[in-house]
Design brief:
Elements: H1 10-24, E1 26-27, E2 30-31, H2 32-44, E3 48-50, E4 53-55, H3 70-78, E5 83-85, E6 89-90, H4 119-140, E7 148-150, E8 153-154, H5 157-161, H6 165-173
Parallel strand pairs: 5-7, 6-8
Antiparallel strand pairs: 1-2, 3-4
Helix pairs in contact: 3-4, 4-6
């Protein structure tokens, strides 16, 4: 994985997906035959009720840097994921840490603050992923609303007192403010 993750524009993701699908019958190198079969499995699956929603195929990627960018979330969806545990985001989004930041010979705990993207970049990536998944689900799925995102927000007491808990959440409610891209 690259040391620096770069966000993708919504238009860039859609151009790449459409161009690759037209040229190679794949999206992010996932063959159309594979995701067509996933959508057939999904249609027959009874799914699993989770809180107020439903996951038609109750599997998905665990949180990590790979779930912080929209193209990876789309690739996971096309490969069958319907539950997306998104990377924890926190207000301390500008730390300089050596990567990887966990080194344990036997077992260890990740206790440092780490995020690859700023709060604004993470917000945009998650919204891009949400929009793209809804678009692809509308186009191909017989159960277009049977997936969900699980987001945790890492805070320390100072974040909550400074209003940090609303930095990501309030931005998700203002999605239109983020889309002034060319």
């Amino acid at each position: 994985m690259a040391k620096v993750m770069k966000p993708s524009s919504l238009s860039g993701i859609l151009r790449r997906a459409a161009g690759e699908y037209k040229a190679k019958s794949s999206i992010f190198e996932i063959p159309a035959a594979l995701f067509d079969s996933i959508f057939e499995i999904e249609a027959e699956s009874p799914g699993l009720a989770v809180m107020s929603g439903r996951a038609s195929i109750p599997v998905g990627p665990a949180a990590g840097p790979h779930t912080q960018i929209a193209p990876n979330i789309l690739a996971a969806y096309l490969a069958g994921a319907r539950v997306f545990e998104l990377k924890t985001v926190q207000i301390k989004d500008r730390l300089e840490l050596e990567k990887p930041c966990i080194d344990a010979l036997d077992e260890g705990q990740n206790v440092e603050w780490s995020t690859e993207l700023s709060l604004d970049e993470a917000r945009r990536e998650y919204l891009n992923a949400w929009i793209v998944l809804h678009l692809f689900a509308f186009l191909w799925s017989r159960k277009p609303s049977d997936f969900f995102f699980n987001l945790s927000v890492g805070l320390y007491r100072g974040d909550a007192q400074a209003g940090g808990s609303s930095l990501l959440g309030s931005g998700l409610g203002r999605a239109g403010d983020l889309y002034s891209e060319p």
